[in-house]
Amino acid sequence: MELTDQEKTRRENLAKIRELGIEPYPAALFPVTHLATEITEQVELDAEGEVTNLQEVALAGRIMSQRIMGKAAFANLQDSSGRIQLYVSRDDIAPGEDKTMYNTVFKKLVDLGDFIGVKGFVFKTRTGEISVHVKEFTFLGKSLRPLPVPREDKEGNIHDEFKNPELRYRMRYVDLTVNPKVKEVFRKRSRLITAMRQFLDDLGLMEVETPVLQPIHGGAAARPFKTHHNTLDVPMYLRIANELYLKRLIIGGFDGVYEFAKIFRNEGMDRTHNPEFTMVEFYVAYKDYNWMMDTCEQLLEHAVKAVNGGTTTKVTIGENEVDFKGPYRRLSMADAIREHTGENIDGVDEAELRAIADRLDVHVDKTMGRGKIIDEIFGETVEAKLIQPTFITDYPVEMSPLTKKHRSKEGLVERFELIVNGKELANAYSELNDPIDQRERFEEQLELGKRGDEEAMALDEDFLRALEYGMPPTAGIGIGIDRLVMLLTGQRTIQEVLFFPQMKPEK
Record-annotated residues binding Mg(2+) 2 (predicted)? Predict the structure, then answer.
């Protein structure tokens, strides 16, 4: 292991601290009483501007800057909430004749990035900055690598900014430390999930958990990650969807269930796709896709408002302002394609669809069936143009092997996708509950698999058996959490809203 000069110096400082009898990684707890932002929010001043409260506070965090001025020093302490200035006096932290705690430890052995705990009182400096006058300080964790703390030179040039995406995503722990604004993205993500969970609970649904390791990769059209169970000596798959298990629970007698689920798909990575992502799916008995559209509008309106502090349903995404307040436009897939291309796909066979794709310069290959071709046409010519929330409804039956056939339109199913800012955000059905029809759809998927479609669904005999015991009419939906967070935080890549996105192996 080759060390830089700074890393060698920090290890030398670590040894010196221990030689002084100070444990740099203590086991005892440190009693924090306040966060940095709590102090600035709670401080009270009298008419002369003197602090009248907060005379005993204890904080803990990283030292992010130091200014040594002889017998005193200023430093910035950063905790989970933000930063606050510290004032450290030699005679306060080393009150006796032995000044080692200040002259040696604080001035020479404390490095930027070290975790310390401080106790003292709050005051206002001559320049008007709320600060903590430190009476005691304790080592809580020595940092052996220097942080890339940004600094500005006399010419105004910024150095050591931690902006390289490759490094930021790979070393998120550094990114969160030196780029505090990144934390707000993940705080909004947490608020979003909390708000959605509250809505679904208030709707009377029950939160459940379903298997991540599955014997059959069902419930979606995607290529799975495959592994092997040694004890059972059988192949297993990381789930590409949790849909078929949630439906089993509806069959078992629950009227409404939901799950925030990690989903895994062995597919490409780009700015909107990560092999591991988060979905919320919920299923409600005795409902259909029309009810689900209304409910989806209400859910998103509630959640977006919560993320925005209860003020607005509008978000700015690049140059576009998107409003999540319902009602959303509802447009059939055929009408959407006709509106944006002038082509009519109603009732046309696979050969004519290939001709339409050719006229529109949409690439399709021989492995694609009728449904996949329509999906390509829509994706290439329509999807990116749908900025405001839009329900695309009534998909061809070939595209939707788990969906109930349309009650009045031959060859279509009762399905919708919600498109926002040119990307799919949600997918929902009136769920197929006819076990004979479902078996035929699965068999059609097997035929597509034989043609080379790696995303064709597998046939799940246990799910078919469950359906044969009877499932009530049911509405179901899946909403992509990561893409929704991207929209609500104005991020252009999915990597910005995942703490630890998948990365290529480090060189």
Answer: 424
